Amino acid sequence: MSDIPLQNWKQQQRTRLRELRQQIPAAQHLLWSEAITTALTQGFPVLENHKIGFYWPYQGEYDPVPAMTSLKARGATLALPEVTGKGEPLRFVEWWPSAPMKKDIYGIPFPDSTREVAVTSLVIPLLGFDEQGYRLGYGSGYFDRTLAAMNPRPLTIGVAFEILRLSTIYPQQHDIPMDYVVTEQSILCRTDAGLVPMTVADCAARNRIVRD
Question: What is the pTM assigned to this prediction?
């Protein structure tokens, strides 16, 4: 697929998937979100020891605030992204349930004047995702630039509803796949053969807390 038709295709998919997500009935959205929260909080015990970059929900995305609150209570350090400039990687600043908030240029809340956090894990919203674990975002490239700039690379967990799954997003050289994708139906682990479903218990065993 050539560059111009590919960009057109991606934009068409963004529009379609955004509309599809926003049409999810509120009760269904809540049930699906609760299932994702359970998978995140029970399937990744290692997160309790991590500095985790989350996001504030936008346009019908999975709402991670319950998972954030739970992980914070278990000892995790949490942060939300701040847009520092067009074409620049995201900056993560500390969040807690009563943290002061303000809105960025897109109208999305983020912590106001809290300290910067060097995150070791990222929970990333997926507008769409494919069978290889690649993410379709909104087109601004913020998360791709952020991941490319991070060394060492953090644990990456994409979150999305199953209806947003695609066979492929036709990944390009700059696209970075997720380590895991969590949906309301399963935890999907990225392998050389693509995404493979695993149980919450198996994921927890793979991502357990390692004690000194």
Answer: 0.94
